Amino acid sequence: MSIDEFEIYIYSFDIFSFLLTTFVSRIIIIGEFILGLFLILKINYKLICRLTFISLILFTLFLIYVAIFRQDANCHCFGELVELSPLESIIKNLVMIVLLMLGQRTTSSKLKAQSSKLLVLSSTFLVFIISPPDSIYKMIYSTEKEISTVDLYKSFDEVVKIDFTEEGLVFDSISSFKEKENQLIVIVSSGCKYCRLGLKKLSLIMKNEDLATDNVDIFIWGSPEGIEDFRNETMTEDYSYWHIMPNRAIEITYGRFPIFIFLKEKDIIKIGDFRDVDDAFI
Length: 282
Known about the structure:
This protein is of the alpha/beta class. 50% of the residues lie in helices and 15% in strands. It has helices at residues 3-11, 18-41, 45-69, 86-102, 113-130, 134-140, 149-155, 193-208, 224-233, 246-253; strands at 160-165, 168-172, 182-189, 216-221, 240-243, 259-264, 267-272.
């Protein structure tokens, strides 16, 4: 239900590329789903119990590491549906380990091996069909990537620099927007869920790839409180923020948010949306 948040969380550990992370996150979900399904149906029960026990031990060790070194607010064990801290999730895992040990004597069902294989294949296809990785999603669904270039260039004279202080944000009407040789402009709404996810992806990719943020400008609209919250949640404190009027933002993007626009010597060379953002795109 919240695969995008989950894959961003896994990517934050900087182990895999973002493309590989989209597959790893789904493989984890498929593995958990199959273990749970086989436990319920009592297929190869003793073997599945052992595999589940090993999985819980490994996840618990991982959570101990997270609790000590990262102190994340949500371990994403239930995605965004139920928010659990790493410590709460460790307790949950210990309870599950005890329950597994109590259920060890249960006998397996007589479901044929062929049916077991069918369940595994069906579970795999189910996850990838319901929520395909962005690389596959873009092959299946083509999305519009057009913007109004006239309105974009008009906005350069209209956007207002946003300065952030301890007391809050301040609109700096003196500073003017300047075009750079190589530049990424991101147009977002502070209240848009996918804008927040897109900027989280962008900031993590920039951080993991050790890329400078000087040439990234965020055009945002929304309330001052919403913009501050957006900046903190997306970990984009080092980025340049510019306030854009909502009607101008809609005219540029035709109402689609977020939009990522790459410029080289003032010419637009690439346009992307939330699904396009990955290591290769950036």
